Amino acid sequence: MILSFFGLAFFLQGVEVGFFPVGQLMGEKLGVISYSWILIPIGFVFGFVATFAEPAVRILNHEVEKVSGGYISQKVMLYTLSIGVAVSIALSMVRILLGIPLWYFIIPGYLIALIMIFFSSKTFTSIAFDSGGVATGPMTVTFILAIAVGVASVTEGRDPLIDGFGMIALVALSPIISVLTLGLLFEGKGRERVKEQSKHEA
């Protein structure tokens, strides 16, 4: 507990002194680029790398592999979550650039997730909703959020509070959909194997 306390205290101090100011400055510099469309692929790369380096994601992946007996590997989960968050950051940049309301992404996104639950197993459903919370960890919230706030602050007609912080809602949603999609693919392969085995037995 003592080590955790001091570790978290030093980390938060580092975020306040370095991470957040640098991220916001990067966002402000990127936001004034004349060819603003470049923010979309940059957002994708930042989202992928930040999730790849997220300690909480690594722990989740390890636990999932252990509980599933190696059926769901750490590497597959890591790439699934990283791609999901990367897509959400890219969509956040599109939303900031075009001024699209957050509800246009959130409501359809959660409707898709709820529909997918009916076709997914309980295992993948529980992993998916845990992934949403894990993906919004310190790397994403401190660094990527700072970039989004910086971009929104220098983009005309955008509010950093609404447009910048709305990114976290998308980041929490995208891993849910990506993991549920992974679950459907895994279950589809499992059904194919069962069919092949039954054919061979027949």
Structure description:
The chain has 202 residues and is mainly alpha-helical. It has one domain. Helix content is 84%, strand content 0%. The protein has 8 helices and no strands. Helix 2 runs antiparallel to helix 4.
Rg value: 19 Å
SSE order = HHHHHHHH
Low-confidence stretches: none
The domain count comes to 1
Strand content: under 5%
- In total, the number of strands is 0
Report on the biggest sheet.
none
What number is the mean pLDDT? 81
User: What class would the helix/strand composition place it in?
Assistant: mainly alpha
Shape: globular
Helix content: over 70%
Number of helices: 8
Q: Termini distance? A: 59 Å
Which SSEs are present, and which pair or pack?
Layout: H1 2-31, H2 39-52, H3 55-67, H4 74-98, H5 103-117, H6 122-135, H7 138-154, H8 160-201
